[in-house]
Amino acid sequence: HHVQLSPEKLVQALCQADDVDAQMSQLVQLFELSESERRLRHLLVTLFQEVFSEFFPGCAILPFGSSVNGFDIHGCDLDLFLDLEKTKTFQASAKGLQGAQAEEGAGPDSDSEDSILSDIDLTTATVPEVLELVAAVLRKCVPGVHSVQAVHSARRPVVKFCHKDSGLLGDISINNRLALCNTRFLQLCTEADERVRPLVYVLRYWAKQQALAGNPFGGGPLLNNYALTLLVLFFLQTRSPPALPTLAQLRKLTGDGDQTIVDGWDCSFPQDASRLEPSANTESLCSLLAEFFRVFGDHDFAGCVISLQEGRMLPLPSFLLSEVGAKFKLGPFNVQDPFELSHNVAANVNEKIAQRFQHCCRDGAKYCRSLQYQRKSSKGKAWGLVRLFQPGVPEAGELGPDGLLITIPFTLMALSPGSRQQLCQARDFGRCWFNKVCAAITFVLKDVLKCSCTGPAGEPLGQEPTEQSGGEQPIVGSKHPRSDERGSLVISPAKKRPRVEGPAPEEEESVSWSCAMWHRVWMGRRRVRRQLRHLGSPQPDTEQEAGSLEVEEKVSEAIIQQEGDSMGAEPLLRFTACARVGGGQEDTRTLLYFTPAPQQGSLFQDFYHFLQGFLPRMVERYVGRAA
Ligand code: ATP
Ligand code: MG
């Protein structure tokens, strides 16, 4: 198993790089699949190929998407295409043969019951029928695969599965030959210019951190990684001089043998990057990134269509009158597929996300003009990419009445592949992740920071859903908060309604804590941490990370001891914290609002500033551990 890169390690590695260009290359190295991860994927593909060939003679299992397009990251899903063209031909000819045999009286079907193909006619079978067959083969005949499920509702129906030992999630589709072409196109772009990969990796990670892209469950209003990647490629096509050729230009360079038409769309482009002329563009990665933000911070996404085919924005009026335009699903974000020209790859993006994308680009552009972006800090402060990756905070309108808000991302990546899988499949995913985060907040407030916390009086305690569907799993040890310590769950009964598909119903749930603090546990933690490390039992190995939950508990205890026990007096601080689910439908951020008791002034401010950095980090730790 690959150990997930922790955010701390990422920050550390990036801060040590020499300049932004080096940070960007470093990011690719930290995220991309290792040799052994690639080998595992390759072995799985071979295994699938062997098993499926038994049932579908002549078939091919072809990987596409991020496992092979050059934008792989640890744990990315394994997208597979099951090509049944040859099998169809095979079946047709076998049928003909059988018919002939039957006429000659060569005995009733001598051998076909061992083939699944005797049950189905591939040329007339519907997509759902074939998919169910694929699912059956996966369930019964591929060792080490579980959670097999056919998903018929998607634009491209797939069979989903999970590989047990590696925790790899994957999809098999049967009618998605275009994806093979666009995968190959992305690959060609990475081969054509070595700046493509670092730029795309950085922007994919940035967009994920800002909760703009990368929803791991598909669906929802976020940009998907494919659309975001196309946006970056388009940006590179439109530099002056261009850093990448347009598809129209590529088509002219296509060799005679490489002409390809798929589903009626011309997908011709050279298979080999050596046919391309090297670009005359010499911009650095550092300035390309800044320019990306500048350009899209000011782009009219709703008013035109981004065309990689032509490498320019198509004005709407004339586009909509064209044949492909008539079928194009117009939205606030319009990115034309490079091959399937009537397809808007960002059609799912809603107004809010489109606007936030623009805002975030503007913020990015502004930051990129600062010295903090351009120059390495000599004082060990966050610089360059690091600050771009700090999670986005909702806009002013979403702030609480006092503006004391901490946004806590829920990082699926912190989970082990197994529990990630379990959670993703939970019927009520929305409830499950939020419960985990709330349990983590309780733990951090009570156990790590030694606040005393209670749910507000009079509100129903213990109404949280019980643990059937991938909710909290007990962790070993005495520190697991019991469910009555998790804060109270407040549900306004009139508003409570089942989750439905479609536009997001406002989430009405919130959990709140009433807290009191007697000690300044937020002060001088670094010093105490250092002291503890010196005192520490024999030689704490280096992975005894400063900053683990256990260490942080000890740090608080030490501070309390040093301050002397002043319990019994009035607490230093009183406040309530109230958590609710963040903005959009697929938003997995928790918004935690703080309301301090009156007249605590700057003391609360200090604590709050400390919590802004500390709490999200600790929550992630806790969630990862509890899983
Ligand atoms: P990752 O899995 O890391 O998010 P990916 O590139 O594999 O990245 P997926 O969402 O898994 O992205 O999609 C796999 C492939 O399916 C893409 O590479 C693309 O070929 C195709 N695809 C995905 N989304 C779309 C879309 N909206 N329109 C057309 N093709 C798409
Ligand atoms: Mg994928």
SSE arrangement:
Blueprint: H1 7-16, H2 20-31, H3 35-55, E1 60-64, E2 78-83, H4 85-103, H5 127-141, E3 145-151, E4 158-163, E5 169-173, H6 177-192, H7 196-209, H8 225-237, H9 247-253, E6 261-262, E7 265-266, H10 285-297, E8 304-307, E9 312-315, H11 316-321, H12 323-327, E10 335-336, H13 351-368, H14 371-374, H15 385-388, E11 405-409, H16 417-425, H17 429-448, E12 452-454, E13 488-490, E14 510-517, H18 525-535, H19 549-563, E15 573-581, E16 589-596, H20 601-626
Parallel strand pairs: 2-5, 8-10
Antiparallel strand pairs: 1-2, 3-4, 4-5, 6-7, 8-9, 11-16, 12-14, 13-14, 14-15, 15-16
This protein binds adenosine-5'-triphosphate (ATP) and magnesium ion.
Magnesium ion is lined by residues 65-66, 76-77, 79.
Folded structure, characterized:
- The chain has helices at residues 7-16, 20-31, 35-55, 85-103, 127-141, 177-192, 196-209, 225-237, 247-253, 285-297, 316-321, 323-327, 351-368, 371-374, 385-388, 417-425, 429-448, 525-535, 549-563, 601-626; strands at residues 60-64, 78-83, 145-151, 158-163, 169-173, 261-262, 265-266, 304-307, 312-315, 335-336, 405-409, 452-454, 488-490, 510-517, 573-581, 589-596.
- It has 627 residues and is an alpha+beta fold.
- The protein has four domains: 35-177, 2-Layer Sandwich (Beta Polymerase, domain 2); 178-366, Poly(a)-polymerase, middle domain; 393-498 and 505-518 and 569-626, no CATH class; 522-565, no CATH class.
- The strands form four sheets. Strands 11, 12, 13, 14, 15 and 16 form a six-stranded antiparallel sheet that branches. A five-stranded mixed sheet has the order 1-2-5-4-3, with helices on both faces.
- A hairpin with a 7-residue loop joins strand 15 (573-581) and strand 16.
- The structure holds adenosine-5'-triphosphate and magnesium ion (MG).
- Magnesium ion binds next to loops.
- Residues 65-66, 76-77, 79 line the site of magnesium ion.
